C-alpha cells in the first residue's frame, strides 16, 4: 500500500503485516422486527454471503472462519460452522465460535490475527452474530432434572413415581440472565451508577445520545455506511438499512422515565443502546497474500490489548484502562489518532469514560499511571454514529467498529484509527488499526 | 458562633444539615449535638428562603450510632433520665411536625437515637450497602427507645415488626428496611469516579436527597406510601382491639419464656407500646419517658451497659501493631474447631491452609466451611459468587506444602500433649522464623506445649469456643516467654476474625476453663444428690444461663469434661472437689459422650428437637448417689452453689494475675461460658449485688461442704471494705 502522509510505520520486525481486505454487515435491526423469524446462523450466513459478494474471494482460499456470539442458540452452538456450511464454504474449512460478551467479534478478529501472525493461516474470515428476537428460555432446573430422570426410568412405576413429584412451580421458566453472574447487577443499573460516580447528568447523556442518532442519520443519508449489505429476508422484503436510527428532540427524550434506577436514575431507553439483531463478517489476510491476490486492503490491523477490571464498579470502564496501554504499545499518542470508534453501550458509560480518561486523579489512584491519557476530541469520535443509534447486536459489534474506523480513515483522509469496546465481566478490547489511505 | 457538631448549607431552597461530631469516628446523640441541631433547625424554620431540609452525616459509615450512653450513666436518678428522654421527645416532635419537609439521608449505622431521629423526619433515603443498618438496639442495653421510638416505630412499620425490632434489637439492612417501609428510597453505593467511592457516594446521596426534598416541598411526591397487600391486611387486623390484645398477649408470653423474667426492659417496651396505642400519644410518650428512667436505673441495665463497654475494650489491640501482618494462615486439624477457625478466617480474606492427617477428615472440615458459607447465602448475607470466591481462600491439604510461607500456624489437633508436641516439632521444621505457633486448647498449659519448641517466644495459646463461627470470644494465653509481638499478632488475627478478645496468663485451665471447672464439679455433686438433669437445667437457665448445666456437659463432651476435671483436679486439689469424677468416667466407659455420640445425660437424634433423658444414666447415678444436705439443697441454694463457685474462681484468677482486668473477666465469662448477661459477668455481679452477700453464701456452703467453697482473699477484701469495687 502506498502512504502519502505517513507519520510513522507501526510494522514490527519479524511479524507479518495483517490487513483487512474488507468487511460487511447486514443491516442492524431492532429485535422483534424483520429478522424475528430467523435463526442466528441465518443472519451469519447472510453476512458471509455479503462478504463473498463484496470481495469475490474464492471460497477455497479461506483457511479458517471464526464468529463471535453471546446468547447462544443451543441448536447451533458452533454458529460459525453452521453459517459457513450454509454459505457454501468448503466443508474442509474449520470454523469455531468464540464468546466474550460485547467484544466477541473483537475476539474473533484478534484470534484470526493470532492465527495469521503465527503463520498458521493466511486467510481468515472473522465475524459476529446476535439474534435477540429469540433467546433460549429454558425449563427450570427441577423440571429439567425430572425430564432427564424420566428418560432413564425403565418401568411405568418408576415413571409414575417421578411424575408424582411434579409441582406446578417446575413450569416457571428460566430466562437467560441479563445480569452479571458475579454481581447479579444488570448492565443498565451498573451504567447508571457509573454515570452517577462521574457526575454525568441526565442532560449530558441525552445530548450525547442525540448526537449519536443525528450523526448516524447523516451518515446513512449520505451513504457513508458502506459496510452495510442488503439482505433479502425469506418471506419478507429486502432489508437495506439499519432501522434503529431515530433522532428525536431533547424535550422528547427528557420525558422518558429512568429505566433502571427508579425513580431518580439517569439512564433511560433513549440514552441506552437497544436490543438488536444483526451479523457482520470481515476478510483478514496476511499482507503479502492479499497483495499477491491483487487486493487493495482497507486497513492494517496493528496492536490490540484486552484488559479487565472489577465487574461491579468498573464494569464499563474498560476503554479508559485500555486506551493508554494500546497507544503505548503502538508507540502513538492521543493526537496521532485520526478516527476513534468506541462502542456506545450507554451515553452515560461513554461520558464516564471520557471523564475518567481526562482525570489525573483517576489515572493515579486506579490505573497506577502518573498522568491522564486525555480524552479523545469529539470531532474525531464516532463520527458516523455508534451503537446507541446504529444498534448493538452483541456478538457482531466489534467488526462494525473496525470497519467504521477503516472506512472513516479512507473517507476523511486519516491514518490511524483506534477502536474500543467494553464488555460484560469488566473486560475490554482495544485495537488500533491503520487505514491504508491514499487509495 | 461556630458550631462543632452540626452545620448547614443551603442549596437552592433546600437546607443541607451536616452532622459531624469532632474527634470521633461516629456521631452520637449527646447534649451538645442535640442543642446544636435545635439551633440549626430553628434557623431553618425561621428562614424565608428555605423550604425543605436534608439531614446527613459527614462521617463515612455512620449516620448516628445512637445516644451517648455515658450521658445516661452520669444520671443519678430515674427522674433525671426521664427528663433527658422528654427533651429528646420534644425535639423529635418538632421535627415530626415540621411544615418544611425534612429528608434523612442515611449512610452507615443508624441506630438507637439515630433511628428515632430518622423516623421523626418526613422522608428517609438510605444507601444500599452492608454498612447501612437501622435498628433499635436499646433492649440490649436494658433500656428502651426513649425519644419517641416506641410510639413512632409501630405506626411506621406496624406493631408486629416494631416489636420484633425493639425486642430483639436486631439491625436491619437497607434493602429490608425499604421493604418494611422504614425507608422510602434506596441509593446504590457508587464505584470510583473522580473522587474516592465513599466520598462520592455520600455526595450522591445528598444530591438525590436534595431533589426529593425539593419535590416534597413542591408537593410533587406524596408522603403516602403504597402499602402492599400483606401490610394492608396486618394494619386492618391491628385495627381490631381483640386482635391487638391477642398480639400483646402472645408477645408477652414469648418474652417471658425467653427472658425468664430476668430482663425487665422487653416487658416494659411492650407495655409502653400498648399504652401509646390504646391510650393515645400523650400517654404513650409519658409512659415511654418514665419507663426509660426506671430502666436506666436497674442493675440489669448497668450490667448490660458494662458489658457493652467491656466489649468495646476487648475489640482493641492493646499490644500495638505487629511487626508483620498475618497474610498466610495455616490450620492443623480439620475437626470442628479447626474448620471453624478456617471459616472465620477465609471470610475475612485470609489465605488459609487447612491441613489434616486424613482425606476423610479434611473433606469433613472443608464441607463444614462450605456449609457455613452456604448458610449465609441462604440468608442472603452473601451471594453465591462471593461464597465461591471466599471459599477459594481455603486450601485443603494433607502435607506441609506452602508452610514455608505461613505467618501463623494455629494447631487444633486432638487435646493430647504428646500429639501437640509432635505437631509442633514437625511444623517448626517447615515454617519461617517469623511464623507464630498458636495452640488451640481448652486446658493444656501453653508452657508445657512450648517446652519442646526451639522458639518459645513465638508460641502462644488461642482458645476458640465452639461453634467458632457463632461464639464471639477468643481467649489468648501468653506464657512467661511469649513475646509482645507474638501477642500483638495473635490479637490482630483474632480481631480480623471478628472476635472479642481477652488476653490471659498461662496456667491450668487459663481463665475460662478454670472458672467453669469448679462449677461443673458442683453440677456433678448436685446430680449425685438426686436432682434430675432436666430440673438442674431449668434451675440454671432460670438463673440466666443460656444453656442448662447438664446440657452444657453434653454439648462440651463428657470425655472433654472428664479430661479437664482430672487435669485441673490434679492442679488445684481440694478447691476443685465436689462431685465425683467417677460419674464422668463411667459415662465415658459406657460411650455416653454427649451430643457427639448421640447419648449423654440426654438422648440426641438427628432431626428431633425435643430431647428425652437417657434412662441408662439412672443406674450410674443411683450407684454414685450421695444424700443431699437438707439446709443447702433448696432450689435457690442449688443455683447459688453453682454461681458462687464460678464467681469465687473468677475473682481468684484476678487475684493471681491470670486476668489482667475485671472487664476481661466479665467478657470472658459472658461471651465464652454463658454467664448470665443480666448479671454483667462475675465481677460486675459482685459490684452490683454486693461482695458481702456472696461471701455469706460461700461461708454457708463452706460450712456444709468444705474447702471448695472457701472464699478467696480478694473477695474477702471487697466484702470488708464496701467502697471497694472492681469497676470504679
UniProtKB/TrEMBL annotation, chain A:
<feature type="active site" description="Acyl-thioester intermediate">
    <location>
        <position position="102"/>
    </location>
</feature>
<dbReference type="GO" id="GO:0005741">
    <property type="term" value="C:mitochondrial outer membrane"/>
</dbReference>
<dbReference type="GO" id="GO:0003988">
    <property type="term" value="F:acetyl-CoA C-acyltransferase activity"/>
</dbReference>
<comment type="pathway">
    <text>Lipid metabolism; fatty acid beta-oxidation.</text>
</comment>
<dbReference type="InterPro" id="IPR020616">
    <property type="entry name" value="Thiolase_N"/>
</dbReference>
<dbReference type="GO" id="GO:0005783">
    <property type="term" value="C:endoplasmic reticulum"/>
</dbReference>
<feature type="domain" description="Thiolase C-terminal">
    <location>
        <begin position="295"/>
        <end position="427"/>
    </location>
</feature>
<dbReference type="GO" id="GO:0016507">
    <property type="term" value="C:mitochondrial fatty acid beta-oxidation multienzyme complex"/>
</dbReference>
<dbReference type="GO" id="GO:0005743">
    <property type="term" value="C:mitochondrial inner membrane"/>
</dbReference>
<dbReference type="Pfam" id="PF02803">
    <property type="entry name" value="Thiolase_C"/>
</dbReference>
<dbReference type="InterPro" id="IPR016039">
    <property type="entry name" value="Thiolase-like"/>
</dbReference>
<keyword id="KW-0999">Mitochondrion inner membrane</keyword>
<keyword id="KW-0496">Mitochondrion</keyword>
<keyword id="KW-1000">Mitochondrion outer membrane</keyword>
<dbReference type="InterPro" id="IPR020615">
    <property type="entry name" value="Thiolase_acyl_enz_int_AS"/>
</dbReference>
<dbReference type="GO" id="GO:0050633">
    <property type="term" value="F:acetyl-CoA C-myristoyltransferase activity"/>
</dbReference>
<keyword id="KW-0472">Membrane</keyword>
<keyword id="KW-0276">Fatty acid metabolism</keyword>
<comment type="subunit">
    <text>Heterotetramer of 2 alpha/HADHA and 2 beta/HADHB subunits; forms the mitochondrial trifunctional enzyme. Also purified as higher order heterooligomers including a 4 alpha/HADHA and 4 beta/HADHB heterooligomer which physiological significance remains unclear. The mitochondrial trifunctional enzyme interacts with MTLN. Interacts with RSAD2/viperin.</text>
</comment>
<keyword id="KW-0256">Endoplasmic reticulum</keyword>
<dbReference type="InterPro" id="IPR020617">
    <property type="entry name" value="Thiolase_C"/>
</dbReference>
<dbReference type="GO" id="GO:0006635">
    <property type="term" value="P:fatty acid beta-oxidation"/>
</dbReference>
Automatic annotation (TrEMBL), chain B:
<dbReference type="InterPro" id="IPR006108">
    <property type="entry name" value="3HC_DH_C"/>
</dbReference>
<keyword id="KW-0456">Lyase</keyword>
<dbReference type="Pfam" id="PF00378">
    <property type="entry name" value="ECH_1"/>
</dbReference>
<dbReference type="InterPro" id="IPR006176">
    <property type="entry name" value="3-OHacyl-CoA_DH_NAD-bd"/>
</dbReference>
<comment type="subunit">
    <text>Heterotetramer of 2 alpha/HADHA and 2 beta/HADHB subunits; forms the mitochondrial trifunctional enzyme. Also purified as higher order heterooligomers including a 4 alpha/HADHA and 4 beta/HADHB heterooligomer which physiological significance remains unclear. The mitochondrial trifunctional enzyme interacts with MTLN.</text>
</comment>
<comment type="similarity">
    <text>In the N-terminal section; belongs to the enoyl-CoA hydratase/isomerase family.</text>
</comment>
<dbReference type="InterPro" id="IPR012803">
    <property type="entry name" value="Fa_ox_alpha_mit"/>
</dbReference>
<dbReference type="Pfam" id="PF00725">
    <property type="entry name" value="3HCDH"/>
</dbReference>
<dbReference type="InterPro" id="IPR008927">
    <property type="entry name" value="6-PGluconate_DH-like_C_sf"/>
</dbReference>
<keyword id="KW-0488">Methylation</keyword>
<keyword id="KW-0808">Transferase</keyword>
<dbReference type="InterPro" id="IPR001753">
    <property type="entry name" value="Enoyl-CoA_hydra/iso"/>
</dbReference>
<comment type="pathway">
    <text>Lipid metabolism; fatty acid beta-oxidation.</text>
</comment>
<feature type="domain" description="3-hydroxyacyl-CoA dehydrogenase C-terminal">
    <location>
        <begin position="509"/>
        <end position="604"/>
    </location>
</feature>
<dbReference type="GO" id="GO:0004300">
    <property type="term" value="F:enoyl-CoA hydratase activity"/>
</dbReference>
<comment type="similarity">
    <text>In the central section; belongs to the 3-hydroxyacyl-CoA dehydrogenase family.</text>
</comment>
<keyword id="KW-0597">Phosphoprotein</keyword>
<feature type="active site" description="For hydroxyacyl-coenzyme A dehydrogenase activity">
    <location>
        <position position="475"/>
    </location>
</feature>
<keyword id="KW-0007">Acetylation</keyword>
<feature type="domain" description="3-hydroxyacyl-CoA dehydrogenase C-terminal">
    <location>
        <begin position="641"/>
        <end position="721"/>
    </location>
</feature>
<dbReference type="GO" id="GO:0006635">
    <property type="term" value="P:fatty acid beta-oxidation"/>
</dbReference>
<feature type="domain" description="3-hydroxyacyl-CoA dehydrogenase NAD binding">
    <location>
        <begin position="329"/>
        <end position="506"/>
    </location>
</feature>
Amino acid at each position: 500500500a502506498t502512504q502519502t502522509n505517513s507519520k510513522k510505520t507501526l510494522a514490527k520486525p519479524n511479524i507479518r503485516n495483517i490487513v483487512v481486505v474488507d468487511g460487511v454487515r447486514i443491516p442492524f435491526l431492532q429485535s422483534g422486527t424483520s429478522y424475528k423469524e430467523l435463526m442466528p446462523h441465518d443472519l451469519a450466513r447472510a453476512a458471509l454471503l455479503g462478504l463473498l459478494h463484496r470481495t469475490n474471494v474464492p471460497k477455497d482460499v479461506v483457511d479458517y472462519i471464526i464468529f463471535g456470539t453471546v446468547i447462544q442458540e443451543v441448536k447451533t452452538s458452533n454458529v460459525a460452522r453452521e453459517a459457513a456450511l450454509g454459505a457454501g464454504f468448503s466443508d474442509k474449512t474449520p470454523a469455531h465460535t468464540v464468546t466474550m460478551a460485547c467484544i466477541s467479534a473483537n475476539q474473533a478478529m484478534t484470534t484470526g490475527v493470532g492465527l495469521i501472525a503465527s503463520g498458521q493461516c493466511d486467510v481468515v474470515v472473522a465475524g459476529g452474530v446476535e439474534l435477540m428476537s429469540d433467546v433460549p428460555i429454558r425449563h427450570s432446573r427441577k423440571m429439567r432434572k425430572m425430564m432427564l430422570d424420566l428418560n432413564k426410568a425403565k418401568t411405568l412405576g418408576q415413571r409414575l413415581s417421578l411424575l408424582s413429584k411434579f409441582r406446578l412451580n417446575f413450569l416457571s421458566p428460566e430466562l437467560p440472565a441479563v445480569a452479571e453472574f458475579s454481581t447479579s447487577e444488570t448492565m443498565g443499573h451498573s451504567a447508571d451508577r457509573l454515570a452517577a460516580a462521574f457526575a454525568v447528568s441526565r442532560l449530558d447523556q441525552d445530548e450525547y445520545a442525540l448526537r449519536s442518532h443525528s450523526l448516524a442519520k447523516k451518515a446513512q443519508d449520505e451513504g457513508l455506511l458502506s459496510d452495510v449489505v442488503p439482505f433479502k429476508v425469506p418471506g419478507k422484503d429486502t432489508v437495506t438499512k439499519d432501522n434503529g436510527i431515530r433522532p428525536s428532540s431533547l424535550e422528547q427524550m427528557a420525558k422518558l422515565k429512568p429505566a433502571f434506577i427508579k425513580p431518580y436514575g439517569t439512564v433511560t431507553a433513549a440514552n441506552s443502546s437497544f436490543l438488536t439483531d444483526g451479523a457482520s463478517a470481515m476478510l483478514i489476510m496476511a499482507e503479502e497474500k492479499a497483495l499477491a491476490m491483487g487486493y487493495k486492503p482497507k486497513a492494517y490491523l496493528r496492536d490490540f490489548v484486552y484488559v479487565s477490571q472489577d465487574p461491579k464498579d468498573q464494569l464499563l470502564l474498560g476503554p479508559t484502562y485500555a486506551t493508554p496501554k494500546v497507544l503505548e504499545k503502538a508507540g502513538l499518542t492521543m493526537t496521532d489518532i485520526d478516527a476513534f470508534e468506541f462502542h456506545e453501550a450507554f451515553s452515560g458509560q461513554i461520558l464516564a469514560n471520557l471523564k475518567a480518561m481526562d482525570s489525573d486523579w483517576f489515572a493515579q489512584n486506579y490505573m497506577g499511571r502518573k498522568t491522564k491519557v486525555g480524552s479523545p476530541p469529539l470531532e474525531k469520535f464516532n463520527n458516523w454514529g455508534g451503537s446507541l443509534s446504529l444498534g448493538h447486536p452483541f456478538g457482531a459489534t466489534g467488526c462494525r467498529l473496525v470497519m467504521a474506523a477503516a472506512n472513516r480513515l479512507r473517507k476523511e483522509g486519516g491514518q490511524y484509527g483506534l477502536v474500543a469496546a467494553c464488555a460484560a465481566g469488566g473486560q475490554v478490547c482495544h485495537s488500533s488499526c491503520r487505514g491504508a489511505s491514499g487509495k | 458562633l461556630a458550631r462543632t457538631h452540626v452545620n448547614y448549607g443551603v442549596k437552592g431552597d433546600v437546607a443541607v444539615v451536616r452532622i459531624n461530631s469532632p474527634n470521633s469516628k461516629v456521631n452520637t446523640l449527646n447534649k451538645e449535638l442535640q442543642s446544636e441541631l435545635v439551633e440549626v433547625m430553628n434557623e431553618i424554620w425561621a428562614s424565608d428562603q428555605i423550604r425543605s431540609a436534608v439531614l446527613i452525616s459527614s462521617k463515612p459509615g455512620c449516620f448516628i450510632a445512637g445516644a451517648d450512653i455515658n450521658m445516661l450513666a452520669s444520671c443519678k436518678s430515674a427522674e433525671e433520665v426521664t427528663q433527658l428522654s422528654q427533651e429528646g421527645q420534644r425535639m423529635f416532635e418538632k421535627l415530626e411536625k415540621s411544615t418544611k419537609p425534612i429528608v434523612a439521608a442515611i449512610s452507615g449505622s443508624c441506630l438507637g437515637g439515630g433511628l428515632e431521629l430518622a423516623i421523626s423526619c418526613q422522608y428517609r433515603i438510605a444507601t444500599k450497602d452492608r454498612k447501612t443498618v437501622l435498628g433499635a438496639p436499646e433492649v440490649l442495653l436494658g433500656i428502651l427507645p426513649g425519644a419517641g421510638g416506641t410510639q413512632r416505630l409501630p405506626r411506621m412499620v406496624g406493631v408486629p415488626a416494631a416489636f420484633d425490632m425493639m425486642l430483639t434489637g436486631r439491625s436491619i439492612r437497607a434493602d429490608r428496611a425499604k421493604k418494611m417501609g422504614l425507608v422510602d428510597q434506596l441509593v446504590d453505593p457508587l464505584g470510583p469516579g473522580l473522587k474516592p467511592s465513599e466520598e462520592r457516594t455520600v455526595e450522591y446521596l445528598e444530591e438525590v436527597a436534595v431533589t426529593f426534598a425539593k419535590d416534597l416541598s413542591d408537593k410533587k411526591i406524596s408522603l403516602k406510601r403504597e402499602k402492599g397487600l400483606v401490610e394492608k391486611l396486618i394494619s386492618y387486623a391491628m385495627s381490631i382491639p381483640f386482635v391487638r390484645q391477642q398480639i400483646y398477649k402472645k408477645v408477652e408470653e414469648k418474652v417471658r419464656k425467653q427472658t425468664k423474667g430476668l430482663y425487665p426492659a422487653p416487658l416494659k417496651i411492650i407495655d409502653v407500646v400498648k399504652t401509646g396505642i390504646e391510650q393515645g400519644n400523650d400517654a404513650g410518650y409519658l409512659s415511654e419517658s418514665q419507663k426509660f428512667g426506671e430502666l436506666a436505673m436497674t442493675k440489669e441495665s448497668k450490667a448490660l451497659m458494662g458489658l457493652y463497654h467491656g466489649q468495646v475494650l476487648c475489640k482493641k489491640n492493646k499490644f500495638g501493631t505487629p511487626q508483620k501482618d498475618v497474610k498466610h494462615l495455616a490450620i492443623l486439624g480439620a475437626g470442628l474447631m479447626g474448620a471453624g477457625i478456617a471459616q472465620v478466617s477465609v471470610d475475612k480474606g485470609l489465605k488459609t491452609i487447612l491441613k489434616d492427617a486424613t482425606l476423610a477428615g479434611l473433606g469433613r472440615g472443608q464441607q463444614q466451611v462450605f456449609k457455613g458459607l452456604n448458610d449465609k447465602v441462604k440468608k442472603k448475607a452473601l451471594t453465591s459468587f462471593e461464597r465461591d470466591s471466599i471459599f477459594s481462600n481455603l486450601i485443603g491439604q494433607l502435607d506441609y506444602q506452602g508452610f514455608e510461607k505461613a505467618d501463623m500456624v494455629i494447631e487444633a489437633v486432638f487435646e493430647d500433649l504428646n500429639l501437640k508436641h509432635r505437631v509442633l516439632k514437625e511444623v517448626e521444621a517447615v515454617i519461617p522464623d517469623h511464623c507464630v505457633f498458636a495452640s488451640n486448647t481448652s486446658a493444656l498449659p501453653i508452657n508445657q506445649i512450648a517446652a519442646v519448641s526451639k522458639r518459645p517466644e513465638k508460641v502462644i495459646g488461642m482458645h476458640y469456643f465452639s461453634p467458632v463461627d457463632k461464639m464471639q470470644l477468643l481467649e489468648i494465653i501468653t506464657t512467661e516467654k511469649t513475646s509482645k509481638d507474638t501477642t500483638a499478632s495473635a490479637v490482630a488475627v483474632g480481631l480480623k476474625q471478628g472476635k472479642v478478645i481477652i488476653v490471659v496468663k498461662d496456667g491450668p485451665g487459663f481463665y475460662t476453663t478454670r472458672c467453669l471447672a469448679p462449677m461443673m464439679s458442683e453440677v456433678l455433686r448436685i446430680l449425685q444428690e438426686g436432682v434430675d438433669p432436666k430440673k438442674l437445667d431449668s434451675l440454671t437457665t432460670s438463673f440466666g444461663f443460656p444453656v442448662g448445666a447438664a446440657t452444657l456437659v453434653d454439648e462440651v463432651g463428657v470425655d472433654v469434661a472428664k479430661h479437664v476435671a482430672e487435669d485441673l483436679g490434679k492442679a488445684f486439689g481440694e478447691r476443685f472437689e465436689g462431685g465425683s469424677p467417677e460419674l464422668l468416667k463411667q459415662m465415658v466407659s459406657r460411650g455416653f459422650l454427649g451430643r457427639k455420640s448421640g447419648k449423654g445425660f440426654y438422648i440426641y437424634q438427628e432431626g428431633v428437637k425435643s430431647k428425652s433423658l437417657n434412662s441408662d444414666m439412672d443406674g450410674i447415678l443411683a450407684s454414685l448417689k450421695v444424700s443431699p444436705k437438707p439446709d443447702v439443697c433448696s432450689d435457690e441454694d442449688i443455683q447459688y452453689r453453682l454461681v458462687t463457685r464460678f464467681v469465687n474462681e473468677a475473682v481468684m484468677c484476678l487475684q493471681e494475675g491470670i486476668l489482667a482486668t475485671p472487664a476481661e473477666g466479665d467478657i470472658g465469662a459472658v461471651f465464652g461460658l454463658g454467664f448470665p448477661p443480666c448479671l454483667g459477668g462475675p465481677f460486675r455481679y459482685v459490684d452490683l449485688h454486693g461482695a458481702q452477700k456472696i461471701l455469706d453464701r460461700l461461708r454457708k456452703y463452706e460450712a456444709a461442704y468444705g474447702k471448695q467453697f472457701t472464699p478467696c482473699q480478694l473477695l474477702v477484701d471487697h466484702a470488708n471494705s464496701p467502697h471497694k469495687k472492681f469497676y470504679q
